[in-house]
Amino acid sequence: MCCCGKPTINGEPGYKWNQPDGPASVHPVNPPPLENGDALLFDEPGRCGPGLDSHCHHYRLVKNCGISLLYQHGGGNGRIRISSTSTLLEAFGALDSNARYWIFNAIYHAQDDAASDARDRERATWQRAAAQKRIKTRKLPARGTVKVWIEAEASSDPGPVID
Asked: Is 56 among the domain residues?
């Protein structure tokens, strides 16, 4: 639990973890790596705020064939492609560092939640198909691959009633 006492940005003194009366330290800055061709637009290290603890997340906005939000946290790092409009960049530029950081944090968590929901739905589809023995495979030796698909569920609807 963050016990900084006041909002603290990683790399600045004042960080306290789980010891409100303990000594303040400096949380290290841990940025996501840039790839070849990335032009750094904004760099927002982790921080805390009133009732919020996000010291473990570091965000960077880069331009490289579009705009991407890079992230680094305890689980690793990644890249989220976002809009490449100049209007968006102007809006981010007009924000102060804290507002920009919390918007990057909201974008990251929205994308992460959507990906998790999509994985859960896909997993449920395959589990249901496996239980119903509807997963089919076909070897394609000429291509050196295997085709895998789910057959449609047998309809329990008898169709239209014709008098």
From this structure: yes
- The Cα 48–Cα 24 span in angstroms is 14
Gap between the Cα atoms of 39 and 1, Å rounded: 34
Task: State whether residue 42 is helix, strand or coil.
Answer: strand
Contact between 86 and 66 under an 8 Å Cβ cutoff? The reply is no
Rounded distance between C-alpha atoms, residue 61 and residue 41, angstroms: 5
Question: Which strands form 67-73's sheet, in the order they lie side by side?
Answer: 39-44, 58-63, 67-73, 76-82
Q: Is residue 37 part of a domain?
A: yes
Q: How far is CA 90 from its chain centroid? A: 23
Give 62-95 pLDDT, tens digit per residue. Answer: 999 899 999 999 999 999 999 878 889 999 999 9
